[in-house]
């Protein structure tokens, strides 16, 4: 097990060059939030923007757009059922987050199919929420893009077809081998672990707690991962995912010193300040 330390945080979160612009910090496309789960994609979008993503576009139910813009005018949005706009945005995106607030129904399956078959190798795909359940049905081959999955243990078991035992490295190794080489898995739980297919070592969080047990935590984490994936190109994608996952729980732990529970949107609110402190320490 590898430890997430201050050195790693400062390696990833660095000060921005003076002459950079929004195009340098990722073109993100977030897809989800179909009725009745509109809040999920809104929380993902807030987290992505607050983590520093350059351009964030959201495909969601048309009825969800006014609520999204009232919370986050910085994000662009379109109807997820507009096939022409979806095609256009899929072509432009560098990072795609698929699944927060999605349902495992016919439309959800069509959306996952459309995204998977449009992907290019250089694009980064994060599969979360309902899209994980659709992927676990086994009807689709894994895409050839850079792939990040964010399952709970049971979701990972459905995806790999292997029952996991927490301390059994052999079953974990077999479960990892079910995914393409280099696939990153964020195994969410009381002690979240971050794996990469083809690697035996992993990172395990030493922060976080039961104050995070509330709706929207996973959606916020997925948005943070997307935001980090689109920037910090001086380090590996794996390191970006590890640090985003750590900060999600580290900020919650800090907030829990004065709060019985921590809301996901409060984590996003604190994110820019926390990132600023880390970037200054690294100088």
From TrEMBL:
E.C. no: 4.2.1.136
SUPFAM superfamilies linked: Ribokinase-like (SSF53613)
Source domain of life: Bacteria
Domain spans labelled YjeF C-terminal: 5-278
Entry cofactors: Mg(2+)
Annotated (6S)-NADPHX binding sites: 40, 101, 152, 219
Enzyme class: lyase
GO terms for biological process, alphabetical: metabolite repair; nicotinamide nucleotide metabolic process
Keywords in alphabetical order: ATP-binding, Lyase, NAD, NADP, Nucleotide-binding
Annotated binding of AMP, by residue: 188-192, 218
Molecular functions per Gene Ontology: ADP-dependent NAD(P)H-hydrate dehydratase activity; ATP binding; NAD(P)HX epimerase activity
Known partners and oligomeric status: Homotetramer.
Family: Belongs to the NnrD/CARKD family.
Protein name: ADP-dependent (S)-NAD(P)H-hydrate dehydratase
Gene name linked to the record: nnrD
């Amino acid at each position: 097990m590898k430890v997430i330390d201050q050195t790693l945080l400062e390696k990833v979160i660095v000060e921005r060059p003076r002459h950079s612009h929004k195009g340098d910090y990722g073109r993100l496309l977030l897809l989800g939030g179909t009725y009745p789960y509109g809040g999920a994609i809104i929380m993902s979008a807030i987290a992505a923007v607050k983590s520093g993503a350059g351009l964030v576009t959201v495909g969601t139910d048309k009825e969800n757009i006014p609520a999204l813009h009232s919370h986050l005018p910085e994000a662009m949005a379109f109807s997820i059922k507009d096939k022409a706009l979806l095609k256009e945005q899929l072509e432009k995106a560098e990072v795609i987050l698929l699944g927060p607030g999605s349902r495992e129904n016919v439309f959800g399956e069509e959306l996952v199919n459309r995204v998977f078959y449009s992907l290019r190798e250089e694009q980064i795909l994060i599969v979360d929420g309902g899209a994980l359940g659709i992927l676990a049905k086994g009807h689709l081959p894994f895409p050839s893009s850079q792939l990040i999955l964010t399952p709970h243990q049971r979701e990972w078991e459905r995806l790999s077809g292997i029952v996991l035992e927490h301390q059994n490295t052999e079953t974990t190794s077999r479960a990892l081998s079910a995914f393409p080489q280099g696939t990153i898995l964020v195994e969410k739980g009381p002690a979240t672990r971050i794996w990469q297919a083809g690697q035996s070592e992993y990172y395990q969080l030493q922060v976080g707690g039961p104050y995070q047990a509330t709706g929207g935590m996973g959606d916020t984490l997925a948005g943070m991962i997307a935001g980090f994936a689109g920037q910090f190109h001086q380090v590996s994608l794996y390191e970006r995912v590890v640090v985003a996952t750590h900060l999600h729980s580290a900020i919650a732990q800090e907030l829990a010193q004065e709060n019985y529970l921590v809301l996901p949107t409060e984590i996003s609110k604190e994110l820019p300040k926390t990132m600023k402190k880390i970037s200054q320490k690294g100088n």
